[in-house]
Design brief:
The structure holds three protein chains of three kinds. Chain A is an alpha/beta fold. Chain A is 40% helix and 28% strand. In chain B, helix 2 (35-44) packs antiparallel against helix 3 (49-63) and helix 11 crosses helix 12 (442-453).
Chain lengths: 251, 482, 436
Amino acid sequence: MLTIENLHVAVEEREILKGLDLSVNAGEIHAIMGPNGSGKSTLAQVLAGKDSYSVTQGRVLYRGEDLLDMEPEERARRGVFLAFQYPTEIPGVNNAYLLKAALNARREADGEPQVDAFEFMRLIRSRMELMNISKEFLNRSVNEGFSGGEKKRNEILQMLVLEPSLAVLDETDSGLDVDALKIVAAGVNSLRSDDRAMVLVTHYERLLELIVPDHVHVLSDGRIVKSGDRELARELDARGYDWVQQEAASA
Amino acid sequence: MATEQKEITDLVKRKYEHGFVTDIEQEFVPPGLDEGVIRLISQKKGEPEFMTEWRLKAYRHWLTMKEPDWAHVRINPIDYQAISYYAAPKSQEDAPKSLDEVDPKLLETYDKLGIPLHERARLAGVAVDAVFDSVSVATTFKEKLAEAGVIFCSFSDAVKSHPELVRKYLGSVVPHRDNFFAALNSAVFSDGSFVYVPKGVRCPMELSTYFRINAANTGQFERTLIVADEGSHVSYLEGCTAPMRDENQLHAAVVELVALEGAEIKYSTVQNWYPGDEQGVGGIYNFVTKRGECRGANSKISWTQVETGSAITWKYPSCVLRGENSVGEFYSVAVANNYQQADTGTKMIHIGANTRSTIISKGISAGHGQNAYRGLVRVLPTARSARNYTQCDSLLLGDKCGAHTFPYIESRERSARVEHEATTSKISEDQLFYCRQRGLSEEDAVNMIVNGFCREVFKELPMEFAVEAQNLLNVTLEGAVG
Amino acid sequence: MNTEALSRQFTAELDRLSGSAETAARRAAAFDAFSATGFPTRRDEQWRYTDLRPISTAELDFAPASPSAELVSRVSESLERSGFDATASRLVFVDGSYCEALSRTTDAAGISIASLASCSEADLPAHAHAPLDGHPLATLNAAFAREGALIAAEAGARTAAPIELVFAASGHSGIAAQPRILIDLGHGADVTLVQHLLDLEPARGWFNAVTQIVQPPGSQLTLYRLQDHAEHQFHTALTRAELAEDAKLICGYFDLGGRLVRNDFDIRLKGAGADADLYGLFLASSGQHTDNHIRMDHIAPGTRSAEAFRGIIGDRGHGVFNGKVVVHRDAQHIDARQSSDNLLLADNAEIDTKPELEIYADDVKCSHGATIGELDDEQMFYLRARGLADDEARNLLTFAFANTILERIALPELRERIAERVAARLPNDETADKMR
């Protein structure tokens, strides 16, 4: 599904990713963990195509095609979804309107017919229930005046509606209380399937108790320095990141 | 060459010096303006003496005035003696004979806006019988309005059939000496609309469709007067939502609104006159004086405007809040693309106690467009506990355009509260990226964000108008991004 | 004072003023430039809210006599009383004339402070003669200016303690002081300057100052000014600054007195990273008129400006704020903020505010806000519910409103000194007056 080879990324001439390799197969969930500033969010943004990052070396293949060559909307239409760490507010733009426009853009790319308002409502109703989102919520402006938890739930709602092939979740757990975390996890888990891959970028292990990953990677100073299974996440939670970084330094 | 020019001018002058008074059948007055021309206009329209005198008074005052130069616009000099002030009804000989002769670009725009086929020909000025099936529609409207006692007719008709109302209210909000263009309009106005809503009547329909059918060719010096008597209510929609074929360069309209006690007037405009081409050649000069007076207590006047057309727009729909507890509102979207220039805003004059006003202005600049908000909020010492809130936002699309904000805020009443906020920015990269990550093209994302930026204003428009306004905005900004 | 009378004074002055033929020619040119238009009137958009007739019709003397020994000692006492630090470097001017006895010009290495008349023409920085187009009163100053201060700092020099400039007026009516302050900084210099304006006795004179500032890359200038004139003084001042790359200018202006006060700022951000931070507090009551008029030009990309002015307007007071931010074409990445907040405390008071933006580049973040109102009812109620008397509560809230600006003064002693003066001169609330 996703192959990242020797990825180097810089922002304003400061190198943040320094040769990252990662391979994600369909049906897998990968967790990327690491201390602040290790480059986790940079990775997420680069996969979605944010242009303030420059890729200086390496390549990223998505279903065998050069992902870096695609415009952000092209990636989205082919099934790459980023759940933003800080979802942007867009004053005056109706939440439902954006979601419907996004869905129809995706469907158009897939050669499927457009959904009308009625079908759209039918389609999102159960998903809204799952995310504990009320109908009024749809009529508010995108992310404007949303609480932190509402923003994150809205991101997952969008993901559920758009049904991506590759979902990248950037710190979706940050700023959530236990109840909201459970709702978000339920949403993510409902989307687990053999033809879908997910990359969870997170700081804490608690999300991974609810969304159990197949692989856990530690990102430090722009590289993946250790990989393992969910036990690694638990160990990190207990011992912190220092030992991994020291291990990496001595190696 | 110069002498020849002078000779022609002289000849022209001589011609109408002799010709106009007797030759009432003449359909066209040569360019130029003097008292004779004004008498002629008045005579041709069969106006009573008081109207003729009113026009002449305005003309004499106009002669003493200078063109205003304070607006943030660059104007090519206007030769007022080169304009023909009476040309009714417009000759149809030069007009295109069918839609095949109309500029395809114009038709393309109609298509995008979803203008009904039978409307397109009229908007493009095609010389066909001006009446489609609309006469019957108009008649139905007229009957319904008459039942309610609402007077809605052309200004010319009103002067003849309701001279007492015209006499009482004409110039009572915008006096003939108000400003240069208002004075000119008062002297030479061609026609326009007149509305009177009697006491306690809620006008049974939006005065819109009717207007759209009949308002074409009201010409460049339009005059509108709306009087809402005590406790009445009226919503008036002006404009067309597609570019009008119009060769007049200078448009100097005057609109006067009078709201008596407890009355409410809602006035919505979608203005899309020809803005000139992409190089800034041609286009309409839209110099309009619009003012409403909340004369009675608890009255309300609300202006909503979407200004996407004209080469130069110079207009400040205003509210004089005289009655206690009266309310003034101004909602505006103004776009300046290519080489368009807009200097627009409002004046809210608080005189009565507990008067309230709200100003929401959204300016969009693109291409080489220059867009200025100019507004005045004045609170007089009599306006106890007056309130004003102003929000004034500018959006920049491109690095060659300009966005300007010139608010004047004057308060002389301690218990009044005035708040003004303004921001200027471009569409944020984050917003664009967010939308594109959800699969929207850059253009769609920009349109969506721009429409969102304008939503507070669009929601004030009647539903079907709002949709057209949105489409219009997208068409106007086509090619402005990317 | 009609143009003729002014012209007679100028001719007389020109003979007496020192300087080369070139200087005399410059003065004459400046006077001609002023005479061509005369005093601006309210028809001029820049003077829409400020009527200069009280100044233009006053009998004024542009050649005041040097202060007497008695006057000097009175000024000295007054300074002591006001708690001025006697050890600080300072220049003292009385009725526009330099007063050596009260001044102290020793200072840290690399910084020189001198009275302008004591400098030779060759010592003056180039910008001393920069044209002042569009500022008629400053142009008049250019014709008459004979005294003032030159503050020069070498590259990297810093002032350990602020330099003080004191302008005292004797109380003799009709004196037209036309001082000029030149500030010339080297690369990376960091200078703090405090200007005090005070009157020994109420006098109806005119203080018309021009401050010219040139800031090279990386320099920082902090300029505080306490305008504490008595109630009849006319005060007009232009502060003009040009900032190169990464230069920072901070101005904190406090206008408490004067009958007719007009402060013009003309700031040009010419190098990337230049940053101007202007804030001010003004009080106007009992017929006072105070106008802050700012033009901020963002000429280079990546520049930042902030303006925050607060006015407290009492009985028969008239406050004006006019701030204009201009972002020039291709000056991208601009951050400009403006705020004008005003308390209107009396029925016959007036505030006019006009925060303007003129923007010709797109990658900008510009905003302005303006508020006008009286004290907040809910805050008043809250304080009274906590047991404060009505007038106590009013005074507390009025001071709190001012304090937002006072808190920005970085020097604690100065902050206290200014805060004390502000508290002493806060306009009394009309309602509170009635209750007493």
